[in-house]
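ok so for the tutorial part 2 we go from a plain amino acid sequence to predicted structure tokens. step 1 is just haveing the sequence, like this:
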Amino acid sequence: MAIQIKEGFKGQKLASLPPNIVTEFAEDPLISGLYVRKIGFFPRVKYHTVVKPMGVNYCMLIFCTEGCGWYEIGNKRYEVSPNSYFTLPPDEPYSFGADPETPWSIYWVHFEGTLARRFLLDTPGPVRIQVQQNSRIDRRGDMFDEVYRNFSRGYIKDYMISSCMHLYPLLASFRWPDQFCYERYEKQDSIPTLSQRAIQFMQECTRQNLTLEIIARHFNYSPSHFSSLFRQQTGMSPIDCFLRIKMQKACMYLELSKLKINEISSILSFSDSAYFTRIFTKIIGVSPTVYRRRESIS
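step 2 — the prediction. this is what the tokens look like for a chain of 298 residues:
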């Protein structure tokens, strides 16, 4: 019996296993503690609303990387902003949805197991990750991808076990964020410049659609002043730098993964894969297809 991989929203990823397969595999002690029921990524999902008036029998994690949304649980409504996440417990009514004006992009996972409740947050409200050095936001996206990659082959038991093993560190990165955002105890001879801090911020946000206004506001500058200072220190505009960082990430995906070009485009928050291809070709010098073929040979 094949896994179900559905298409709905443009660029979405969704994978689920038939319940009888999940029930059969869940008897294995390597799976029974914590396992995936369903997992996906929805980019900029306008008109996305889910209502569960009777609750469900699984736990859920939602991680918003850009845009805004909301959820209601326990007769209270919570607003969700970029780089925020929340968990939903089983057996409690809830609803959630995207903001109609600035719809969210979300990674999400339904999970079960004897240890599942240990990975629920202590607070019913959302938790926001502060983007700074070592916040490792992009790393969480890579971890989602690894769970999804294994679970999408989960009708083979070894892949199901592998998805479970990758699920532990993924959920732990949200349940215990301070421990995940470790400090690197490296000596720094000088205070980082504005451009160095900005580049670090950009590297943490390659899965988002940052604008000059967003970057400048993060560092408490006006867009024009920030752009001028950044250009003085680097010789390029902030957005040109951000696009180069994104294309560096795209090269990594093209070399090290089997993701399709439109999937890479979506992960890097390009709404149009044709535009992504044009930017990639302009910066790298060849198209994504040519780059992948060339690097696979070398």
